[in-house]
Amino acid sequence: MLPREELLKGVENRDSVARVIDRAEQAIKTWEVAVTDFLSPPESIEAQQVFKRLEEVQLLAGGGYPQAERQRLAIARSELPLDPSQIPLAALEIAGNFLFDPATHRDFLGAMLATGIVRDKTGDIIVLGEQGAQVIVVPEMVEFLTASLTQVRSVTVKTRQIQLSELKVREPKKKELTTTEASMRLDAIASAGFGLSRSKMVDSINGGDVRVNWKEVTQPSYLVKSGDLIALSGKGRLEVGEVAVTKKERYRVQLTRFI
């Protein structure tokens, strides 16, 4: 048995990590690969950090494409081979004419959950504008969703399975920039990185549209550091790189924006 309470000490996503530990104990006992449902980025990152302390098991994350946010974890004994093909994933196309009634990520997710499935069974949703969307799910949900998911907002849709290779994922573009700020406050760094006014950035932070390392932050004065990842809804992500203090005691910050 794994040292459950020791592993869970100080863990924020306790229930999710506890379920990963359950899968790990199953993998150890059966000598087979065990796989979790989809985890959010904070859950996946924290679980992988927890399991770095253990030598007897190994973890591998996969969500259908390299930049996938929601991922499943495959868990196996350290002695066994483990590769991405052992993470069961399926892709669906949700096709309809959304020209006159555009649907958002939230709309597609809401329509899927309205069929009765739980969030843990769904991975990333790739919105394709007026054409609909593509979604990654656990394979056992394919038949149910192809039959049950027939409408999103006012639009009639046809849901069918596609290959993962058919996912229309755009590689993020990178832009390198440098800013000099009086502090490492979130509103200052994010404002410079995303090219928005300080007041607009404060509104976005207060409104819950900003995440740091996948966790929602609603305090503009929150201090960021090198290595942090800042995400702004609809504007992409910003990675905080090297930080240097100038002679005038200001912070010169290297930033990488992913659009």
Describe the structure.
With 259 residues, this protein is α+β, with helices and mostly antiparallel strands. It has 3 domains: 4-86, Ribosomal Protein S8, Chain: A, domain 1, CATH 3.30.1370.160; 90-166, Alpha-Beta Plaits, CATH 3.30.70.330; 174-258, Structural Genomics Hypothetical 15.5 Kd Protein In mrcA-pckA Intergenic Region, Chain A (Roll), CATH 3.10.290. The chain is built from 7 helices and 15 strands. It has helices spanning 4-8, 14-30, 41-51, 105-114, 142-148, 186-194, 198-206, and strands spanning 34-35, 57-62, 72-77, 90-95, 122-127, 132-137, 151-152, 155-156, 158-162, 174-181, 210-212, 215-216, 229-232, 236-245, 251-258. The protein has a 6-stranded antiparallel β-sheet with strand order 10-15-14-13-11-12. Strand 5 (122-127) and strand 6 form a beta hairpin. Helix 6 (186-194) crosses helix 7. The N and C termini lie far apart (44 Å). The relative contact order is 0.11.
